[in-house]
Amino acid sequence: MDYKSDIEIAQETQPQSINVIADKLGIDDKYVENYGKYKAKIDYNLLNEYEDKPDGKLILVTAITPTPAGEGKTTTTVGLSDGLRKIGKKSVVALREPSLGPVFGVKGGAAGGGYAQVIPMEDINLHFTGDFHAIGAANNLLAAMLDNHIHQGNKLGIDIRRITWRRCVDMNDRQLRFVVDGLNGKANGVPREDGFDITVASEIMAVLCLSKNINDLKERLGRIIVAYDFENKPVTAKDLKAQGAMAALLKDALKPNLVQTLEGTPAFIHGGPFANIAHGCNSVTATRTALKLGDYAVTEAGFGADLGAEKFLDIKCRTTGLSPSAVVIVATVRALKHHGGVAKADLNNENLAALEKGLPNLLQHVENVTKVFGLPAVVAINAFPTDTKAELDLVEEKCHALGVNVALSEVWAKGGEGGVALAEEVVRLCETESTLTHPYELSDSIEEKLRKISQKIYHGDDVVLTAEAKKQAAQLEELGYGELPICMAKTQYSFSDNASLLGAPTGFKVAVRNLKVSAGAGFIVALTGDIMTMPGLPKVPSAEKIDVDDSGKISGLF
After folding, report:
1. Alpha-carbon dihedral of residues 384, 386, 391, 397, nearest 10 degrees?
2. Which of 68, 108, 193, 295 falls 20 to 30 Å from 537 in CA-CA distance?
């Protein structure tokens, strides 16, 4: 069989009209705002009509610690939703939007792969419906109003050495991490140190994804802290009278985007915070809409379960009162062998010893989900042709020892048909009773929350705060932010804060160097290790392979 790229598979599929997809969900035309033939925004006021309707079952898809071998979390999420439809269940998938940074960088897009994709994949992976541009514009409007306030006399007494708000752009651009602006004379502003974050790391992205409606959005925007004054008091977007204009820029971006899978399963794709530097979940409005319109809502959280799933459960679920009925933990035999020390070039060879050495990574994620959070789980092995029976049997044996079943997922090659076994196990799990528990209490001190995450989720010995971080923790507690949940900014490549420690490392301490409150989003961001909020492009960026012909057909996009 000839190999086809993801984009070739997607381009060979004839999508259904987006109005047909909306009809499948019973959405009244008055709530559907078409963006061409195959995309639409759904007015969030639709939720008011479904207020009294019981929610469907929420299924969270997460994964082992990512490796260069790939895990296929989004592919599994899409294929599982298609698989649920194959067995007669009304399912809806809810995903994040891709950032242009990874699309043109190294990670790739976020539309799934093979025969388990959402379409139109080119639009989704590029500008889509303009949500990220709106978020960037709102972010940078606030930055402009902040600097203009200082230039026009600084009535609020802002200490320019304590400005915390940065500009943003949706691209990996290390050149913009640290800049000095306001140069070349008085008319051009006040000179100061500044910098850019990637748009997905902007607090406005988190605010948009956690807001229930436009009023909640405005209130959260107003609470954003942009700086501190000379008396050490926070200065907010509301102090700058910026929240109304920011909300105006975001009013359409707040509406979830409706698309479809290759098999015509409805899919909401909305919001895109990274899970290594933000909370890594799609929007509350998209998730709630999926739960009201489907019997099963399948969503994912970014990177490994120590990042995305932890934040989904400790931040998003606490904010919304949601709780998953089942959790899917995605792994590949190849990735587990990589955790066992095998080089990428040798991953196709059977290696039971390396697999056994790498399996603790999967097992630690499983135990975190089932024992720390108290949720039923299934391990989905994303199948590769090179997987051997002995390797698959070993994974199943180790998972069964923890009381968790394993389902072979063949959705990349077979679409929904390859997800039927996983779908059947998920339906079974959804009928079991469970109660979501958390690794820390909101009433714990900031340092104690950090310690409990480090010990219970990462399995480290302790957390170590720098002198500056200790000072910041004390100040945040004094200002009344001590009971907010924690959003750990940590490398995605290890349970620890050291990307080179693979598998399930022990004997390490997590170093927290900076604490910052995202008062609008409602959490405290803890920067660990050498994590950055503005990535850079790799030596050979994916952008070098992307092209478009004279008919407008895009190539090289995965």
Report:
1. 20
2. 193
Spatial CA neighbour of 265 closest among 94, 29, 27: 94
Q: Flag whether pLDDT at 383 surpasses 60.
A: yes
What are 409's two structure tokens? 């997922």
Residue whose pair of structure tokens reads 């042709």 in the numeric block: 385
pTM of the full structure: 0.94
Q: Quick check: 221 and 519 in contact, CB under 8 A?
A: no
- Per 3-state DSSP, the chain is made up of helix, strand and coil in percentages (nearest 5) of 40, 20, 40
Residue 83 — φ and ψ, nearest 5°? -65, -40
**What does the alpha-carbon distance between residue 333 and residue 71 come to, in Å, rounded to a whole number?**
9
The pLDDT assigned to 1 comes to 45
Give the sign of the dihedral formed by CA 317, CA 488, CA 403, CA 67: positive
Cα–Cα distance between 293 and 297 in angstroms, integer? 9
Contacts of 424 by beta carbon, 8 Å cutoff, 6+ apart: 87
Q: How many Å from the N-terminal Cα to the C-terminal Cα in the chain?
A: 19
CA dihedral 160, 165, 169, 174 (to 10 degrees): 60
Residue 4 backbone dihedrals phi, psi, to 5 degrees: -115, 135
**Burial bucket for residue 503 (CB in 10 Å: 0-12, 13-18, 19+):** buried
Residues contacting 130, CB < 8 A, separation 6+: 252, 253
Question: Of how many residues is the chain composed?
Answer: 558
Residues marked as catalytic: 73, 75, 96, 107, 275, 303, 384, 412
Amino acid at 390: A
How many CA atoms lie within 13 Å of 19's alpha carbon, on the beta-carbon side? 7
Amino acid identity for residue 297 in this structure: A
